[in-house]
Amino acid sequence: MRQQIADAKRIVVKVGSALVTNHGEGLAHDFIAECARQIAALHADGRQVLLVTSGAIAAGMQRLGWTTRPHAMPELQAAAAVGQMGLAQAYETTFLDHGLKAAQILLTHEDLADRTRYLNARSTLQTLLDLGVVPIINENDTVVTDEIKFGDNDTLGALVANLVEAEALVILTDQKGLYSADPRTDPAATLISEGRADDRRFEAMAGGAGSGISKGGMITKVRAAQRAARSGAHTLIVSGREPDSLLAAARGEAIGTLLYAVESPLAARKQWLADHLQLAGALTLDAGAITALAVGRSLLAVGVTRVEGDFERGAAVACRATDGHEVARGLINYSSSEARRIAGHGTQDIETLLGYIDSAELIHRDNLVLL
């Protein structure tokens, strides 16, 4: 598995606020310079590297003289707007020192939830890579709201890995990797060297949230690895404070925690669907419908026992078991009001109930992905 990291030609590198901003005390120019140097070395080795960076809000806080992260959305957006200027300038300057051009890409979830904008973002990133440019990607915190934000850049890093079909996601953090327990409170905690990305035990080991400056924590990194694995990308969580840690990771050395993908990558359209972070509604399915989905069949109205949400035809919705566990998601062929009227009824009843039949399936299997 480590060799697969070493063989990766396209790598997404994610760096967190604690590293980029010296734990919130202004931009860590030494770290940014080191990061650029190592990425330049990978570039010279024929690798394509995309950098997902946190730090805009933390950098803006420092410039504005704020010592604690604000809670009000306008203040967070203002801090991001101020900090993004210095963050972009710092990366541009350091990459130019190595003869590399950098490009700033700011994304919101809406950019990736809309199919057309998703494909446009993919094409732009692909073109930049073909031109030998290093994309510097961050969430567009200046306009983001609670309804559309990714929530943390670990998730954004995984989404970018899926978007460009990267073979590896390397998350540089201020910890050596994932431990069996919190090493700050449990002296018996041991470093996890590697494991399957879909091993749910790692979520319990990862514990709670991050610091007051960073938004994530180890739990978001574990979940990012799960998401990245859907497109076949392996995730390595490694300390960004160790000398040449990115280069060592890219050589396949046994550092950090490797959470590897084991399943075949999803088809591109289904990957896009799986990456929806906000869904318009939810359907509760009976046992028979869940069994049918598991063997590759479409979802029929007769297998739906409950419809939640207010949505239009073509919206992305969750498909859940009776215990609330999400088993699939898909693009629905009927609006929420129509779905409620035909839920639990056979296909032969749809025209009688609605006055017409648009589709025999509530969700066609081509527009449905199992989770």
Any chance you could write out the topology, listing elements then pairs?
Elements (H helix, E strand, L loop, with lengths): L1 H6 L2 E6 L1 H4 L8 H16 L3 E6 L2 H9 L8 H24 L5 E6 L1 H5 L1 H16 L3 E6 L13 H12 L3 E6 L20 E3 L4 H6 L11 H12 L4 E6 L5 H6 L6 E4 L7 H7 L6 E5 L1 H8 L9 E6 L6 E5 L5 E6 L4 H7 L7 H5 L13 E3 L1
Parallel strand pairs: 1-2, 1-5, 2-4, 3-4, 5-7, 6-8, 9-11
Antiparallel strand pairs: 7-8, 9-10, 11-12, 12-13
Task: Report the CATH superfamily of the largest domain.
Answer: Acetylglutamate kinase-like
- Please report which band the strand proportion falls in: under 5%, 5-15%, 15-25%, 25-35%, 35-45% or over 45%: 15-25%
User: Number of helix segments?
Assistant: 15
**The biggest beta sheet, please?**
8 strands, mixed
- Look up the CATH topology of the largest domain: Carbamate kinase
Summarize the structure.
By secondary structure, the protein is of the alpha/beta class. It has 15 helices and 13 strands.
Care to describe what's here?
It is a single chain. The chain has 371 residues and is an alpha/beta fold. The protein folds into two domains: 2-270, Carbamate kinase, CATH 3.40.1160; 279-370, Roll (Archaeosine Trna-guanine Transglycosylase, Chain: A, domain 4). Helices cover 39% and strands 18% of the residues. The protein has helices spanning 2-7, 17-20, 29-44, 56-64, 73-96, 109-113, 115-130, 153-164, 201-206, 218-229, 245-250, 268-274, 287-294, 336-342, 350-354; strands at residues 10-15, 48-53, 102-107, 134-139, 168-173, 194-196, 234-239, 257-260, 281-285, 304-309, 316-320, 326-331, 368-370. Strands 3-4-2-1-5-7-8-6 form an eight-stranded mixed beta sheet, sandwiched between helices. Strands 10-9-11-12-13 form a five-stranded mixed beta sheet, with helices on both faces. Strand 11 (316-320) and strand 12 form a beta hairpin. The model is unreliable at 209-216 (pLDDT under 50).
